[in-house]
């Protein structure tokens, strides 16, 4: 029998006096009042709470996954049948049998509202539309906020790791916003592990966005840590004049980011977590799925299940937020044929991750959220597809100490409009912050103009889950 164990990444407790002293010196770039607010919200800084944010790239068709309408006309109900789950009265898609077995470990949100209608993951990363506070740099992603409130230059793993693939605007969704580039996510290149072919139009978008938004975590063989540190000091010397006129302190903040990156590179802890070859064979088998060799060009293949294994390994290494994508749910054409390939990947991945975390004693500490940028049209179009539908969407939640085995909200008989218990993106974000022991209502961050900005401005933690 596998021995249950807590993950071995807990940091040593920091005495309150040392905590306050560090805060007075600008620990992790925070002013002392912000540190005190964070300390009051969490109780201590050694929290092992974490989030795995799974974005269903393209917008999942809610009526084909968890909100089936078996009595609707065929052009609305589609081709799939429902199966019973461990939650009485709940049926979900027949292609999700393992999720059905674990339904009591999940929350099924059928009433997600407030989509900005944008074909990216920004709202799933922050709770806000991309245009919110755009003049100040935009809103920060949840993981970037965690880096601000929880991160330290001494960390041997980054607070936030972004593994997103898919369409370019999705890849660039996890942004630090007004917090500045010192709090950007770490983006290791995982293309050698998980191939995701792009359409020609997407390749053009990606070229305009920058070099794949990847962070290298490999030191050049001819460079050792001392030489890299010497180079950093030399660059700071060259930049002295620019520093003198940098009233924002941004260059000093980037120094912090560079020093942390060097520490992560030289510790080896992060790179070991990224090496799936170090995982035992039984666990690898849990995250293994056999599929026919007819992968659609823009869809994730069976290997994508291991993205969730990678997320678990990163959290064990000390990462507090991991975001990743499963794609391509942009099913304007061939909705049902595409889902026959994609949903088994999602099903196996969620089953493997939830059971793995539970056996390791981690599930109550790790919150899982699964969602997309919007739902899809109730009526099937002429290409057997479903188009964008911001009026209603879906989300799945698990772990984090939440009360699971519930269905929240309902849509009308065609899955077109929410008729009960609407849940906003910010409500989900507020719940995740609370699970991380960060007060989403009281905690504020200072924007570049010095004004306090709340983590959510309209949402509140979902009461049914507390």
What are its keywords?
466 residues; eight-stranded mixed beta sheet; 17 helices; alpha/beta; disordered N terminus; 16 strands; Alkaline Phosphatase, subunit A; two-stranded antiparallel ribbon
What does this structure look like?
The chain is α/β, with parallel strands linked by helices and 466 residues long. The chain has one domain (29-218, 268-465): Alkaline Phosphatase, subunit A. The chain is built from 17 helices and 16 strands. The strands form 5 sheets. Strands 1, 4, 5, 6, 7, 10, 11 and 14 form an 8-stranded mixed sheet that branches. Strands 2-3 form a two-stranded antiparallel sheet. A two-stranded antiparallel ribbon has the order 8-9. Helix 10 runs antiparallel to helix 12 and helix 15 (306-316) packs parallel to helix 16 (335-359). The two termini are 32 Å apart.
Brief sketch in words of this structure:
This protein is of the alpha/beta class and 466 residues long. Helices cover 34% and strands 14% of the residues.
Give the CATH superfamily. Answer: Alkaline Phosphatase, subunit A
Shape: globular
**Uncertain runs:** 1-46, 219-223, 241-251
Overall number of structural domains: 1
- Radius of gyration using CA atoms only: 22 Å
Largest sheet: 8 strands, mixed
State the helical fraction.
Answer: 25-40%
Give a count of the beta strands, DSSP E runs of length 2 or more. 16
Please give the count of helices.
17
Strand content: 5-15%
Classification by helices and strands: alpha/beta
The CATH architecture category equals 3-Layer(aba) Sandwich
Distance between the termini: 32 Å
Kindly identify the CATH topology. Alkaline Phosphatase, subunit A
Mean pLDDT: 82
What is the CATH level 1 assignment?
Alpha Beta
């Amino acid at each position: 029998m596998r021995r249950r164990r807590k993950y071995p990444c807990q940091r040593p407790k920091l005495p309150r006096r040392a905590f306050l002293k560090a805060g007075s010196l600008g620990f992790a770039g925070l002013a002392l009042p912000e540190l005190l607010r964070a300390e009051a919200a969490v109780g201590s800084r050694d929290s092992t709470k974490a989030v795995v944010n799974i974005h269903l790239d393209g917008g999942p068709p809610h009526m084909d996954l968890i909100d089936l309408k078996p009595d609707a006309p065929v052009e609305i109900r589609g081709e799939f049948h429902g199966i019973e789950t461990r939650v009485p009265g709940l049926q979900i898609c027949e292609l999700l049998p393992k999720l059905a077995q674990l339904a009591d470990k999940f929350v099924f949100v059928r009433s997600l509202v407030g989509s900005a209608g944008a074909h990216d993951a920004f709202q799933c990363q922050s709770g806000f539309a991309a245009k919110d506070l755009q003049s100040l740099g935009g809103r920060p992603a949840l993981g970037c906020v965690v880096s601000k409130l929880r991160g330290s230059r001494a960390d041997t793993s980054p607070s936030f790791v972004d593994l997103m693939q898919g369409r370019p605007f999705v890849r660039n969704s996890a942004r630090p916003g007004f917090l500045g580039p010192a709090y950007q996510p770490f983006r290791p290149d995982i293309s050698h592990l998980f191939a995701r072919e792009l359409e020609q139009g997407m390749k053009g978008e990606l070229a305009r966005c920058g070099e794949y938004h990847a962070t290298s975590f490999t030191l050049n063989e001819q460079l050792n840590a001392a030489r890299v540190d010497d180079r950093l000091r030399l660059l700071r010397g060259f930049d002295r004049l620019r520093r003198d006129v940098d009233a924002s302190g941004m260059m000093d903040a980037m120094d912090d980011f560079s020093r942390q990156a060097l520490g992560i590179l030289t510790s080896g802890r992060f790179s070991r977590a990224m090496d799936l070859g170090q995982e035992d064979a039984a666990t690898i088998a849990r995250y293994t799925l056999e599929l026919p060799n007819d992968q659609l060009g823009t869809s994730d293949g069976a290997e994508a299940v291991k993205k969730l294994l990678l997320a678990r390994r990163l959290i064990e290494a000390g990462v507090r937020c991991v975001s990743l994508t499963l794609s391509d749910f942009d099913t304007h054409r061939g909705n049902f044929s595409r889902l026959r390939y994609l949903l088994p990947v999602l099903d196996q991945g969620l089953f493997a991750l939830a059971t793995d975390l539970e056996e390791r004693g981690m599930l109550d500490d790790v919150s899982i959220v699964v969602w997309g940028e919007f739902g899809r049209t109730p009526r099937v179009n002429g290409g057997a597809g479903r188009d964008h539908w911001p009026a209603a969407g879906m989300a799945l939640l698990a772990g984090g100490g939440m009360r699971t085995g519930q269905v929240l909200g309902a849509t009308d008989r065609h899955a077109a409009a929410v008729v009960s218990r609407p849940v906003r993106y910010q409500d989900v974000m507020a719940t995740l912050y609370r699970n991380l022991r960060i007060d989403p209502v009281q905690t504020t961050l200072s924007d570049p103009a010095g004004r306090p900005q709340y983590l959510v401005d309209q949402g509140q933690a979902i009461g049914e889950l507390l």
